[in-house]
Amino acid sequence: MAILKPDNTSTLNGVKINEYLLTKHNPNSIAMPTVSMEGKVIGITVHNTDWISVASGTTPAEQYTRATYNGNMKDVRVHYYVDNTCAWQNLPLTLSGWHAADGSGNGNHRTIAIECIMSSAYNSTDKKSEDNCARLAAALLKKYGLDINHLYTHTHWLNVRDGKSGTVDYLNTAKNSYKMCPAYILPHWAEFKKKVESYLNTGSTTSNPTPANQLYRVRKSWSDAKSQIGAYSSLENAKKACKAGYSVFDNSGKAVYTVAEKTYTKDTKITLNNVTLYSSSTAKNGTKKSGTYYLYDGQVINGRMRITNSSANCGKTPTGSYVTGWVNKADI
């Protein structure tokens, strides 16, 4: 088969990106992921795959893309292959991949996969591949407003799958009997992480920004990246995901849409729809209730609020005679 020609070429953080999406090019009807990652990306997963010799006029990243196109990569589907020269993008960033061996876990369904093509020699060519991988990972973290603690190894998701718990750094590097990946980067993962962080904290990431690169992030505040619940290319989808106390921010950090935090006061009329009613603020079990009620005093205790079935009962004592029960504030 002839060498592939990319549909689009761009530069991202100094890395040449050749876009050849298998969602558009699939004449052999290879199986493809179908789960959307729109607004769900939580990080970048780094893998290693082995260096291969290729014909003149092409690169290993193109060769791996072509092998996938031909159905020779079994059930592996990644977003990027990167070598010492460039990266080839195989999947849209809104589509999940098959790469983490965690089934429907967050590795496959919520992270962007980069396969870094290297060898055990760790020579100058390997180091250039690794540098391109670091640059690309940093650019993607920045694109989604994520910090360095959202950089993952393949092994991280294997450890999560196997029931291990701990810090991101621990899960990224803890021994897993199934596979240690990225095999050639893991021995110096801390140094690689520092390199990604340095690229993340310096300079712009793209040489040709366009409106198509706009992402709308849903957060409590622009500075509170940890509160982010999604990043969307569509403003309307971001608005739909935005909940009370959150705002939608554009790439510049400007709030373009806000849902005000709900306020709760005594005698506020509420409607419950199959909501659990508890006998106290600490009761573990309750009964489902629907209908119109009123907040007894507007106070929140252990995340719950007291309700009564009549406005005339609000605030009256003794509470046992006038309080119908407790409901979770989140259910109101």
Automatic annotation (TrEMBL):
Q: SUPFAM superfamilies under this entry?
A: N-acetylmuramoyl-L-alanine amidase-like
Molecular function GO labels = N-acetylmuramoyl-L-alanine amidase activity
InterPro entries linked to this entry: Amidase/PGRP_sf, Amidase_domain, NAMLAA_amidase_2
Instruction: List the keywords (alphabetical).
Output: Cell wall biogenesis/degradation, Hydrolase
User: What processes in GO biological process is this protein linked to?
Assistant: cell wall organization; peptidoglycan catabolic process; peptidoglycan turnover
EC main group:
hydrolase
Q: Could you tell me what this protein is called?
A: N-acetylmuramoyl-L-alanine amidase
Q: What is its EC number?
A: 3.5.1.28
Q: Which Pfam families match?
A: Amidase_2 (PF01510)
Which species expresses this protein natively? Ruminococcus callidus ATCC 27760
Under catalytic activity, the entry for this protein gives: Hydrolyzes the link between N-acetylmuramoyl residues and L-amino acid residues in certain cell-wall glycopeptides
**Ranges where the N-acetylmuramoyl-L-alanine amidase domain occurs:** 32-166
